[in-house]
TrEMBL record:
PROSITE patterns linked to this entry: ABC_TM1 (PS50928)
Domain ABC transmembrane type-1: 62-280
Family: Belongs to the binding-protein-dependent transport system permease family. CysTW subfamily.
Name this polypeptide is given: Phosphate transport system permease protein PstA
Transmembrane segments: 12-34, 66-87, 99-123, 129-148, 258-280
Database matches in SUPFAM superfamilies: MetI-like
Source species of the chain: Lacticaseibacillus brantae DSM 23927
InterPro entries: MetI-like, MetI-like_sf, Phosphate_PstA
Subcellular location: Cell membrane
PANTHER family: ABC TRANSPORTER PERMEASE PROTEIN YQGI-RELATED (PTHR43470:SF4), PHOSPHATE TRANSPORT SYSTEM PERMEASE PROTEIN PSTA-RELATED (PTHR43470)
Amino acid sequence: MNPKQADKLATGVLYTVAGIIIVILASLLGFILFQGLPHVSWHFLTSPASTFEAGGGIGIQLFNSFYLLLLAMVISVPIAIGAGIYLAEYAKKNWITDLIRTSIEILSSLPSVVVGLFGFLVFVLQFKMGFSILSGALALTVFNLPLLTRNVEDSLRQIHFTQREAGLALGLSRWETVVHVVIPEALPGIITGMILGAGRVFGEAAALIYTAGQSAPALDFTNWNPLNIASPLNIFRPAETLAVHIWKINSEGIQPDAAAVSAGASAVLILAVLLFNLVARYAGNRLYKKMTAS
């Protein structure tokens, strides 16, 4: 076999493998949406869930998912940006920084159930936060922070060193160069990573079962006082999310229409994660074009 034939054969094998993977993923996605979308309606998206009666929705669970996601990103993003800037711009090459990077790699590969058990022991029991939104948000922070930190560091390292030299040559300090030159150039990659991380957190279930809880108490959407237990903004109340709700109704099966609710909720979850990915690609491309044009 000559080199051209070997190259064509290898290329054909790679295309075949990629095609098989795409077909499998598209089939799974199509099956979930085909089974779930007929059950999705405005009533389904806004009404509270029912335990022993048919016709319940996912309104509270959907709100809890977005609220937990927002709180977790508010906590983790500033820490990740600070850690990424330090590792990329200020950390010296020694065994301490190597240990930090190794620890980040290890933490980023932890199973979510391990993070959930850690959150249960530390936040729920040790700090006596109970099953609450705050416990869940802190667990999601532990779960997502290593990935966000690595994303920020990689995005900053991809900026060519001449950009830094140009800032220093103009009389900027090192910090001013990072803030005004390096970070704006790395912003498309950073924002893309943040949105993808948000999508990963949105579909998380195992870490929240042990921290945010498996119940969704009735909420009073006319009372936005965060100190009121019935307020949607109360961070010390239990909060069953959409992913946990799907797991719960499939494991208990006490709802008459559990299969329909599970299919509809799964379709909504898939669409939300797809939306996060599409927004990440769109935002990254727009920012990149804007940065290159300017």
